[in-house]
Design brief:
Blueprint (H helix, E strand, L loop, with lengths): L7 E3 L3 E7 L21 E6 L4 E6 L7 E10 L2 E8 L9 E6 L4 E8 L6 E10 L2 E6 L10 E10 L8 E5 L2 E6 L9 E10 L8
Parallel strand pairs: 1-3
Antiparallel strand pairs: 2-9, 3-8, 4-7, 4-9, 5-6, 5-8, 10-11, 11-14, 12-13
Length: 203
């Protein structure tokens, strides 16, 4: 995985890799990752199975790492997604980004000034909670002004939920602050008071 074309594949919502960039090099035309001089880069690729917030870290690496995440298909055709130089212990790196489902991301670890050694690479996808409005149903109609109770089910398979906010457009209708643990599904509710006549979209 010295060259981008030979990038190793990471799979799943959690990936932990032990690797090295000893004897790695920099390709002709390759960028300075995290805007710092490198010279010993190695590459991985990962395709998001779900949307969510991704954290990539080089914690545990034995040298001053440079970390960058891109989309693209060659060193001459890269779009930067996230980058970091020093954000961890012992000059390791940590970057976060919002992944889109089905998009392939390129992850590169380089050594500051060409430094090299053992690499600890971790990728963790925090998937977005699953929230769906149960009532009122689509097409619901009533005479206004009216008080309307909105109910929604929420589930987060890899983290807890602290609250659910209900909106009409950009206007906050109400909040249910009930806290639930990972993997628990619950119904949340709020009441929209004095809703005026009209057509609305609730989220």
């Amino acid at each position: 995985n010295d060259n981008l074309a030979n990038a190793y594949t990471l799979r799943g919502a959690l990936a932990i890799v032990a690797a090295t960039n000893v004897r790695a090099s920099k390709e002709p035309g390759e960028l300075d990752h995290a805007d710092k001089p490198g010279g010993s880069s190695v590459w991985w690729k990962w395709t998001a199975s779900d949307p969510g917030r991704v954290t990539v870290s080089t914690a545990g690496s034995a040298f001053d790492t440079l970390l960058a995440i891109y989309t693209g298909d060659s060193v001459s055709n890269l779009t930067l997604v996230a980058k970091n130089d020093d954000d961890g212990q012992n000059s390791t790196s940590r970057a976060t980004f919002d992944a889109e489902q089905g998009v392939t991301y390129l992850i590169v670890v380089d050594g500051f000034g060409g430094s090299a050694g053992p690499i600890g690479l971790q990728l963790d996808l925090n998937q977005l909670p699953d929230v769906s409005i149960d009532s009122p149903s689509n097409g619901f109609a009533t005479n206004g002004p009216a008080n309307i109770t909105i109910r929604a089910r929420a589930l987060d398979i890899d983290g807890g939920i602290a609250r659910v906010d209900f909106y009409q457009g950009a206007t906050l209708i109400g909040t249910d602050p009930t806290v639930i643990a990972k993997g628990v599904i619950r119904t949340y509710s709020a009441t929209w008071t004095n809703a005026a006549p009209g057509d609305y979209t609730l989220t």
